[in-house]
Structures are given as structure tokens and as C-alpha cells.
Write a structure and sequence with these properties.
Layout: E1 28-34, E2 39-47, E3 53-54, E4 57-60, H1 65-86, E5 91-98, H2 107-119, E6 124-125, H3 134-141, H4 161-180, E7 189-193, H5 197-209, E8 212-216, H6 220-230, E9 233-234, E10 247-250, H7 259-262, E11 269-270, H8 281-291, E12 294-295, H9 298-301, H10 304-314, H11 318-342, H12 346-364
Parallel strand pairs: 3-5, 3-6, 4-5, 7-8, 7-10, 8-9, 10-11, 11-12
Antiparallel strand pairs: 1-2, 2-5
């Protein structure tokens, strides 16, 4: 008998869930399928030590189920540390729906997804993310109470995108204070990559402050709309990473900070809304530090959205939402200083603070 030798690079395929590099002791992974509606979804619950796992639902036309699984694992893990470092009593979870949100999302599909969320009994609470709208959350709410980010007219906190963007803006100002000695962004050259709802709201904040903003996106029509609305510049080159800038703000999908881009980056600060910006956290965090680029940890500065939807669970008002979001400035500055003092990456410094809070709660239990 001949035993086939499995290559090291293929070992993870033998254990397609637990063998994933992005699997980080997740508590539960739920695969949802419904033939009638065409629903194919994955819910990742990473950690519930601090509270129920709250995180948005993303609908994306993934190239494979493998890609979707990897995304939900990375995103749900990020939510754990986002809530922990922000001081919220929430765990980390996320959901992904496989498909084109523009052509395949139907009310029936969303209702069926809501039923799957409901079946988890509140261990996972969903919200809006890429490919979703507040109206979708309103629909899900008709079949389960375990959803946030519903319309203000229905008693919710509304669209979280503006608050997410404001938190990123606060984190960016803190990074500028650390790097330049001033948090005034007027005349700073800032490239915003990705102008969805959060990216556009960030552009608005930056434009109001007088920054020199360049926008980049795969949607040309969207670019022109944002340019005309906020009097910013459309980036017309073919490699944004080589452009000289003060701040790079990735606001689309993750992993844009990698082996290829770091060697080209010509920026002083990275501060954006995208999740999981570092393709490999330890390696690329260290590369940025060695290059002298200040990285404002994504799971820290993009926490405004979860602060906004958390208000629905804790019943605090708009004033408290803004206070908590503005505090991202102080936390970011503390993390950047701590990283310097401890001679570690900013990502590691933020991770250590978040993990310490989780560990403390676990010991209490």
C-alpha cells in the first residue's frame, strides 16, 4: 500500500476549520444553508467571556467558501478585541453571507438568516456591515430581537457608519498628535482607499478640517460623486502605495498592509476603517515599526460603529455615544505611547490591553 504524503502547505485542508490559520480558539462556528432562499451563510462566534458576541453581517461575492470562512474567522476575532479595548461588555462575533448583495439579496433570504440568528438564543447579536443596510436590520428584527443597528424610527441607533468614521477620525488625529506633535489635519495629505458609507463619512470629516484628500475606489461613479460633494481629489494613478502622503486610510477590505505594499508605502501614518488591515499581525506590525510608520490599530479606531449599536442594548443616548467615540482619541494616544515605552508594535500594545481585560473577567468567573 502506498501512503500519500501531504505537503505542509496542504495540511490545513485536512482540518478545514480547526486547521485554518485564522482559527483562534473560536467557541462556535455555524454554517447556515437554505435551499429555497439560496442562503449560504457562516456565523463565527469567537469569544463570549465579556458578553454576547456582537458583530455585523457582511454580504460579499466570495470566490470560494474557503475565502468566506477565513473572512468570518478573522472578522469575529477582531470584534472580540474591538469590544474589549473599547470597554464594552460584549464578545466577538461576525456573520458572512455568500453572494452578490446587489442581485442576490432578497427579503426572504434576510428573514431566513434572521431565523438562524434567533436559533442561537442571543449568543450572537447581528448588525449592519458591508453589503447591508439599516433596512435589512429592520427586516431581520421582525424575526429575532438579537439584532442592532435598526432604524431610529423603530427605536434603534440608526446607521453606524458616521459614528465609525468619526472614531477613525479621532484615532487619526491622535496618531497625528503622536507623530507630528499636533492633531490639526489641515493641509495634511491623506489618501482614503475605499469610499463606501464609512469612507465617505471620513472624507467629510477630513474635508471639513481642511485636509488635502485623495480618494480611491473601484467605482468611478462613486468617486465622482464624492469628489463633487466634498471638493476632494480623485486618485488617478495605478499604485496608491507609492504616492507620497502624510496619512494612508484604508477603508475597504482588509490585508492591504502586506509584504508587497509595506516595501512601497510612502506614508507616515496608517489610520483607516478597514478591518484586519495587517495581513500578518506580528510580522507586518513589526515591519511598519521598523520603517517608522505609525499604525493606529484598526480594531481600536474603527470601534465607533459598535459603540453606536451597543447603545441599543444599554439604552444610553446620543451624547454618550459621542463621548465614548471621542475617547478613542485618548485610548489611541495611550496605546501609541505604550508601544513606544515597551518597545513593541502598536498592534501588540492594543492587543495586550484588550486581552488583559478578557483574562481579568475570565478569572472573576
Amino acid at each position: 500500500m502506498v501512503t500519500e504524503v501531504i505537503k505542509t502547505s496542504e495540511l490545513h485542508k485536512v482540518d478545514p476549520v480547526f486547521g485554518q490559520m485564522s482559527f483562534d480558539n473560536h467557541e462556535q462556528i455555524v454554517f447556515c444553508n437554505d435551499k429555497d432562499t439560496g442562503l449560504k451563510a457562516i456565523i463565527g462566534i469567537h469569544n463570549t467571556v465579556l458578553g454576547p458576541a456582537l458583530g455585523g453581517t457582511r454580504m460579499w461575492n466570495y470566490t470560494s467558501e474557503w475565502e468566506a470562512l477565513n473572512d468570518v474567522l478573522r472578522l469575529s476575532r477582531g470584534m472580540t478585541y474591538k469590544s474589549a479595548i473599547t470597554g464594552l461588555n460584549l464578545g466577538g462575533g461576525k456573520a458572512v453571507l455568500i453572494g452578490d448583495a446587489k442581485t442576490q439579496k432578497t427579503p426572504e433570504l434576510m428573514l431566513k438568516f434572521g431565523e438562524f440568528v434567533h436559533s442561537l438564543g442571543g449568543k450572537y447579536i447581528t448588525a449592519e456591515d458591508v453589503g447591508m443596510a439599516t433596512s435589512d436590520m429592520d427586516l431581520v428584527r421582525t424575526v429575532t430581537p438579537y439584532v442592532t443597528g435598526i432604524s431610529e424610527s423603530k427605536g434603534g441607533a440608526g446607521n453606524p457608519s458616521p459614528i465609525t468614521a468619526y472614531g477613525v477620525f479621532m484615532g487619526m488625529k491622535a496618531a497625528a498628535k503622536y507623530k507630528f506633535g499636533s492633531d490639526i489635519l489641515e493641509d495634511k495629505v491623506i489618501y482614503v482607499q475605499g469610499i463606501g458609507n464609512v469612507g465617505e463619512a471620513l472624507v467629510e470629516n477630513l474635508s471639513n478640517e481642511g485636509a488635502k484628500v485623495y480618494v480611491s475606489d473601484i467605482n468611478q461613479e462613486r468617486l465622482e460623486e464624492v469628489r463633487d460633494k466634498y471638493s476632494v481629489n480623485i486618485y488617478g494613478g495605478d499604485n496608491i502605495y507609492t504616492e507620497e502622503m502624510d496619512i494612508y486610510a484604508p477603508c475597504a477590505l482588509g490585508a492591504t498592509i502586506n509584504d508587497f505594499t509595506i516595501n512601497q508605502l510612502n506614508t507616515k501614518i496608517i489610520a483607516g476603517a478597514a478591518n484586519n488591515q495587517l495581513a500578518e499581525e506580528q510580522k507586518h506590525g513589526k515591519m511598519l515599526r521598523e520603517k517608522g510608520i505609525v499604525y493606529a490599530p484598526d480594531f481600536l479606531i474603527n470601534a465607533g460603529g459598535i459603540i453606536n449599536v451597543y447603545a441599543e442594548l444599554e439604552n444610553y443616548d446620543r451624547k454618550e455615544i459621542m463621548r465614548k467615540t471621542e475617547n478613542i482619541y485618548n485610548t489611541t494616544l495611550e496605546i501609541l505611547k505604550k508601544a513606544d515605552a515597551d518597545n513593541i508594535t502598536t498592534h501588540q500594545a492594543a492587543f495586550n490591553v484588550a486581552q488583559a481585560r478578557i483574562d481579568a473577567r475570565k478569572n472573576e468567573k
